[in-house]
Amino acid sequence: MIRSRKGFAVVAAMLLVAALALPAVHAAPDTPYYGKEFSQPEKVLKLYPDPDVRFETPAFTSGLERFTSQEEMVQFLRKLDRSSPWTVMKSLGRSQEGREMPVLFFKRGSGKGKPTVWLQGQIHGNEPAAGEAMLVMAQKLAGEYGRKLLKHINVVLVPRVNPDGSYAFERRMANGMDGNRDHLKFDTPEARAIHSLYNQVQPEVVIDAHEYNPDPALLKDVGKEGALKYHDLLILSGKNLNIPEEIRDFADGVMVKEAKARLAKQGFSSGDYYTAAKRDGQLEITEGGPEPRIGRNSFALKPALSFLVETRGIGIGRENFLRRVAAQVTTHQSLLETAASRADRIRRLVDGARKEIVGKGKRVGDDDEVIVTSKAKEYPTTLPVVDIAEAKVKEIPVRYFSHTEGEADLTRERPLAYLLKPEQTDAVRRLKYAGVKVNRLKKAAKLTVESYFVTGKETQDSPYEGHPQHQVTTKVVEKTVVLPKGSWIIPMDQPTANLAALAMEPESTDSYVTFGFIPSEAGEELPIYRYMGGGSLR
């Protein structure tokens, strides 16, 4: 689980700062931490009854309509830290507005030889059930539940990735960035802090908790009064095709399958996570995509078993809140318990996948390819929604785009390394945040390489996440170059190689050329080279 000789405790001890020392102050009733955009009719609310469960976390015990404040969260976690012998609370750092980002380490014994599960919540500030479920899980892990479970696994838990957005009850970070689109470009200190710890811990399993919007505007033309999205919870594993196939198969065939069965047994509806849009009057449903900038895929590309968990909650305030948190907790417990019951298998599976990636990066010419872009498989199906007028679930026809069944669109043979000219320090800095190992040429070298020649370039009219988007096409040609001392080497014999490749390959949706971190001009050569083994990289 831990790649340190002294094990799990070393990572916790090295992490930034010691335990939190914020004052134990209760938030006043008139502070933020609340928002509501629409109300569901009473007849719809009855479709989502409260489960027979009670939680003792701040949002449920304060007696107030709002959600858990920063001060309440810290006080709650500090109490758990004091009460449990296998719980250690540290600080991941501070948010852009200076709020603490607590992290909890749960382990029994040395932690050695056990897989680690990473849980995080509320990277989007207006998704409160995701954060509250993390507090429930922290409480369970600090108690008897944890005592049994931690015989087999270790757990790292970050309850609130976006404390500024949670305070303002807004989706985005304080700088306007979407934190869940920042897992490859690293524009936010919060994303950098998350990955800094993640790269030390190297967990085998990741759970990323969110909420989704019932979306009345999108479904306003369904029935007499419109419709709402139906499922209590949507779940999805990493879908980038560069994630090792054995990881994807186990994630879906075992862990997601068991979580859905547990949800059904507890009376919750579930499905695969999707986004929806209407085009030419037709409703299109797209399964969560393969983009490496998204946490679910970025974590899985390191690689790991990575899961997005979303409850039906954005925009409805406290409505169905107990049910939403309970659905989250049910899913997290299922994933944790599957990891614990199959700990040895998961450890072998993930370690084997990482070693296989390293091995592939040591050779060329074996038809091993990097999948630069892929396309979803389209087919007609139906989607369950709640007809508001009838207060019933009905199936409506949709066009469905499946990334689980997606196919490679553009591929290139895996190189031994990518090479960057010395001035590409911005790209290198971002790669290092992702956990990619980068070396430097100690002296100038004459090398045979593959070079990218830009044959076409289109820049989108509107920037994305603060950056103009450059869609390029390239022609790869073999040539001999002399790279100066200090040029950057990105070796492909490392576990994060597939993530690095998607940052480097220019046509990748989230490449550093796409985001403009590496400059590009039509008709010119890019300052990136593919090293296939001609000359020495010393």
In short:
The protein is an alpha+beta fold. The protein has helices spanning 8-14, 42-45, 58-61, 70-83, 128-141, 144-149, 163-168, 189-201, 245-265, 295-300, 321-341, 343-360, 425-433, 497-504; strands at 87-94, 100-106, 116-121, 154-158, 205-212, 227-229, 233-237, 270-272, 274-279, 282-287, 305-312, 369-387, 392-413, 417-420, 439-440, 445-459, 470-483, 488-491, 525-534.
The radius of gyration is 24 Å
Walk across the major sheet and give the strand order.
1-2-4-3-5-11-7-8
Number of strands: 19
**Shape category:** globular
**Fraction of residues in helix:** 25-40%
Average pLDDT, rounded to a whole number, is 93
Model regions low in confidence, pLDDT < 50 over at least 5 residues: 1-7, 9-30
Computed structural class: alpha+beta
The biggest sheet, with number of strands, parallel, antiparallel or mixed sense and barrel status, is: 8 strands, mixed
Strand content: 25-35%
Number of helical segments with 4 or more residues: 14
CA(first)-CA(last) distance: 31 Å
Description:
This protein is an alpha+beta fold. It has helices spanning 8-14, 42-45, 58-61, 70-83, 128-141, 144-149, 163-168, 189-201, 245-265, 295-300, 321-341, 343-360, 425-433, 497-504, and strands at 87-94, 100-106, 116-121, 154-158, 205-212, 227-229, 233-237, 270-272, 274-279, 282-287, 305-312, 369-387, 392-413, 417-420, 439-440, 445-459, 470-483, 488-491, 525-534. Strand 7 (233-237), helix 9 (245-265) and strand 8 form a beta-alpha-beta unit. Helix 5 (128-141) packs across helix 11 and helix 9 (245-265) packs across helix 11 (321-341).
